[in-house]
Design a protein that fits this description.
Layout lengths: L1 E5 L3 H8 L6 E3 L13 H14 L8 E12 L2 E3 L5 H11 L3 E12 L5 E12 L4 H11 L18 E5 L11 H10 L4 H4 L2
Parallel strand pairs: 1-2, 1-3
Antiparallel strand pairs: 3-4, 3-5, 5-6, 6-7
Amino acid sequence: MKLLLASGSPYRRELLARLRIPFDCASPDIDETPSADESPQDYVTRLAYEKARALTAQYPQHWIIGSDQTCVLNNQICGKPGNHDNAVAQLQRANGQRVSFYTGLCLLNSASGEYYSLTEPFHVHFRNLGHAEIEHYVALEQPYDCAGSFKVEGLGINLFEKLEGRDGNSLIGLPLIGLIDLMRKAGLNPLELAQ
């Protein structure tokens, strides 16, 4: 069986390529509206499963990887900013705060329906930054398609005083340590599949 990444994200694709396992990519089309009273953890776990499930008919002989991430600040979900002003405002709200990221991950066998899932938490502690620093960062990196308004793999690392979690790849959207755990549970050995 082949591996499929249920995502159009170039960031997730780049992360998965690090494992050196051949894979295909496809973007699922699902409704990403949170359910009433759904916790951020339940929300991302559900979406990761739904993303993988949405592609089973098109890819009937694949292990499908679904992943979804949300950013939580002061018990509120923060989406992708979409533009400069929203990114600056989001970073100003996060200034000096602890922000939590939850990444839902699902590995689904499209032939049998068998699946494994987890939710990976990761927390970042923002430095106290001046308005000019935030403006300059956003202008340079333009993190408009990133939950939390930063790219940790780039200049975003300057925004933090501390990171907490088992896998920093979670911040980019695909926790590789968790994925390796799920693959091993499914009987797939990533080291044996690597090329």
